[in-house]
UniProtKB/TrEMBL annotation:
<protein>
    <recommendedName>
        <fullName>Neutral zinc metallopeptidase</fullName>
    </recommendedName>
</protein>
<keyword id="KW-1133">Transmembrane helix</keyword>
<keyword id="KW-0812">Transmembrane</keyword>
<feature type="transmembrane region" description="Helical">
    <location>
        <begin position="22"/>
        <end position="44"/>
    </location>
</feature>
<dbReference type="Pfam" id="PF04228">
    <property type="entry name" value="Zn_peptidase"/>
</dbReference>
<dbReference type="InterPro" id="IPR007343">
    <property type="entry name" value="Uncharacterised_pept_Zn_put"/>
</dbReference>
<keyword id="KW-0472">Membrane</keyword>
<dbReference type="GO" id="GO:0016020">
    <property type="term" value="C:membrane"/>
</dbReference>
């Protein structure tokens, strides 16, 4: 993935909380999951966990003290253009968020709707949200209550080291685009209509696979979606990029996590995100068609 050297970045779509550090206390009090496999499972279960109100890792509001401040000064200084995104990880994340939201903004307008931007919050250790407080071990997530995305960027290192994912910028873009898929579901009212739950045919799994499909739809349009000044922000997505996204999808399937990282036994009744094959399939459906209407995982008889 390459960013357009001359295209401007919009840092305002990101909120940098990394300097404010409420983390220590959240991390110390969070979760209580002592078993490595469980922690890993939990982490990935949350990679996009929509219904955070039912997630035990989230504390109650007010559990942590004051002082969570947005400080975008470093990003504003360093992340001005696509050239910065090509050399700086933070800036690449900003640029990816910009591209994803540019696409959905256009797509909503085409269908007579208005897209409401959602910021992505960078945090370390812990964060306070309208869905409660969360430690980094929950992984990236979308909080539907405040319509914001939260990510500890060290998660991507975790994906490589513990999950053995190949990683790379586009694998990270897939993760972000999946979270924005949940925002789109929230805006369209999809998430409010479904019951969630777990199991291979559950609404919860269908919601997650649809978010994967929406991520693929964005990937299809990423090099042709113009920014405000008319140029696409992303100039190139290679077959290797797509392979890296699929590799990541394969390592966060419920069956893979349970088998490889969670103790070996695969229990379909506890599936929340779909199998590796299903996650790859729905990302691919979005990517090859570029059509959000093809992401009807709720109407699909066969999820793959
Ligand atoms: Zn998700």
């Amino acid at each position: 993935m390459r960013f357009n050297e001359g295209a401007g970045l919009d840092v305002s779509q990101v909120e940098d909380l990394r300097g404010s550090g409420i983390g220590g206390r959240v991390a110390a009090g969070g979760g209580g999951l002592g078993v490595v496999g469980l922690v890993i499972y939990f982490l990935l279960a949350q990679f996009g966990g929509v219904d955070s109100t039912s997630v035990s890792g989230f504390g109650q509001l007010g559990e942590v003290g004051a002082g969570q401040q947005v400080d975008n000064s470093s990003l504003e200084q360093n992340c001005r253009t696509g050239a910065d995104a090509n050399t700086n990880h933070d800036c690449a994340t900003v640029a990816t968020v910009n591209s994803i939201q540019d696409y959905w903004s256009d797509q909503f307008a085409r269908s007579g709707r208005t897209y409401a931007e959602a910021p992505t919050n960078f945090f370390t250790s812990g964060v306070r949200t309208a869905c409660g407080t969360a430690g980094s071990d929950v992984g990236p997530f979308y909080c539907p209550t405040d319509s914001e995305i939260y990510i500890d960027l060290t998660f991507f290192e975790e994906l490589r080291q513990r999950f053995g994912a190949r990683g790379g910028p586009f694998a990270e873009a897939y993760v972000l685009a999946h979270e924005y898929g949940h925002h789109v579901q929230n805006l369209l009212g999809t998430s409010a209509q479904v019951r969630g739950g777990s199991g291979p045919e559950s609404d919860g799994v269908r919601l997650e696979l649809q978010a994967d499909c929406y991520a693929g739809v964005w990937a299809n349009h990423a090099t042709t979606t113009p920014t405000e000044n008319g140029q696409p922000l992303i100039t190139e997505i290679t077959p290797e990029d797509i392979a890296n996204a699929l590799d990541t999808a394969a390592r966060i399937g419920d069956d893979f996590i349970q088998r490889e990282l969670g103790g070996g036994t695969v229990d379909e009744s506890s599936f929340t995100h779909g199998t590796s094959a299903q996650r790859e399939k729905w990302f691919t459906t979005g990517y090859t068609t570029g059509d959000p209407a093809r992401c009807d995982t709720f109407g699909a008889r066969d999820l793959g």
